[in-house]
Structure formats: structure tokens, C-alpha cells
Design goal:
This protein has helices spanning 2-21, 125-194; strands at 24-28, 32-40, 45-52, 58-63, 69-76, 78-84, 89-97, 103-110. The chain is α+β, with helices and mostly antiparallel strands and 197 residues long. It is elongated, with a radius of gyration of 28 Å.
């Protein structure tokens, strides 16, 4: 019982680690487009999920082997899309940054090589349900990875803010000590001139 729970936890952790390693991250320069390619055969399934840091908007598009648009998602900070190819060839998916600043995009493409064990054309209803469940699990893993990515960004932001607040506080203490010292010196010099001290 306890050994089985431990084994399941290790397998789950390794699965999460492996799925995190499959994620891609790119830093898009201002007003640029980046395209990636996937070679598909007729009937192959391809899916992708993506998210930008800070939910900053990018344009997403998927094009077939003849560069005809299949799907587009303009001005969005996250999304997912699933497609079954209708012809052989090199399909492309592109991210376009229309903003005047850099945008970090984290994305997870899932190509046909991940489904070879489910690829029979005369699949039973149970196998089709397993395929759907597999895609849903991919989406959950991808969203978990995006949450980890988002958490890392926020943790770095908090650490930077705390560092700046510490430096600002030290500067304020030094300025206050300097002003107090100057006031003491000035008041003492006034009393010295008048001969009181």
C-alpha cells in the first residue's frame, strides 16, 4: 500500500518533469514574427498550447503545407488549438509580436509522434475515449507548466521589488541621519557664535 503510493508519486513527479522539459520558451523582439514547423501526414493529429508572460497579447496562426491559414487567434495572451491534418507536408505555427516591447512566449506543441500508440484508423470507441483523455491530460500538464512558469516570473518580480525596497530604506535612513547630523551641527554653531555654549 505505502510502497505503491511512493512509486506513484515518483512516476507522477518524473512525468511532470518530462513534460516541463518539452515546453519551449522564446523571447520575441518588438514587431517580429517567429514561425515553427511540424511535418505531418494526412490524418496526423497536432495540438499546441501557449501562454505569454504577463498575458501580453500576441497573434497566433496555424498554416497548412501550402501556407494557407487554417486557424488564427489574434491579440491573445494564451490559447490552445488542436488539428487533424488533411494533407501531407510541413505545417507551420507562428507567433507575431505587434508590441513595441519584448514578449516572452511559452508554448507546448504536441506532434504525431506522441500518438503513434493510438494511431489505428479503425479505433474502438474505448480507444477514441483514451485518445480524448490523453489530449485532456496534455492540456492539464501544459497549464500546470504555464503556472510554474508564471510563478517563477512572479517570484523573480517579488524578489526584485524587495531588493529595491531594502535599498530605498537604507538610502532613506542615511538621508535622515545626514539631515539630523547637519541640524545638530548648525544649531551648535549658532549657539557657539552667540557664546551660549
Amino acid at each position: 500500500g505505502n510502497m505503491l503510493k511512493h512509486f506513484a508519486a515518483v512516476v507522477l513527479a518524473l512525468g511532470m518533469l518530462a513534460s516541463y522539459a518539452a515546453a519551449y520558451t522564446t523571447i520575441m523582439r518588438p514587431t517580429t514574427q517567429e514561425c515553427y514547423f511540424e511535418r505531418l501526414k494526412t490524418g496526423n493529429h497536432f495540438s499546441i498550447t501557449f501562454e505569454t508572460a504577463g498575458k501580453l497579447p500576441v497573434d497566433f496562426s496555424l498554416n497548412d503545407a501550402h501556407r494557407n491559414p487554417i486557424y488564427s487567434m489574434p491579440h491573445t495572451g494564451e490559447g490552445s488549438y488542436s488539428y487533424t491534418s488533411t494533407s501531407d507536408g510541413r505545417y507551420s505555427y507562428c507567433f507575431k509580436n505587434n508590441a513595441p516591447h519584448e514578449i516572452v512566449v511559452n508554448f507546448n506543441p504536441h506532434g504525431p509522434e506522441e500518438e503513434t500508440f493510438l494511431a489505428s484508423h479503425d479505433a474502438t470507441p474505448a480507444e477514441n475515449e483514451v485518445r480524448k483523455l490523453s489530449h485532456n491530460i496534455e492540456e492539464v500538464r501544459d497549464h500546470f507548466n504555464f503556472m510554474l512558469f508564471r510563478n517563477e516570473v512572479h517570484d523573480q518580480s517579488v524578489a526584485d521589488t524587495q531588493k529595491r525596497m531594502f535599498h530605498w530604506s537604507v538610502l532613506q535612513v542615511m538621508a535622515l541621519a545626514g539631515v539630523c547630523g547637519w541640524q545638530i551641527y548648525y544649531v551648535r554653531s549658532l549657539f557657539k557664535i552667540r557664546g551660549v555654549v
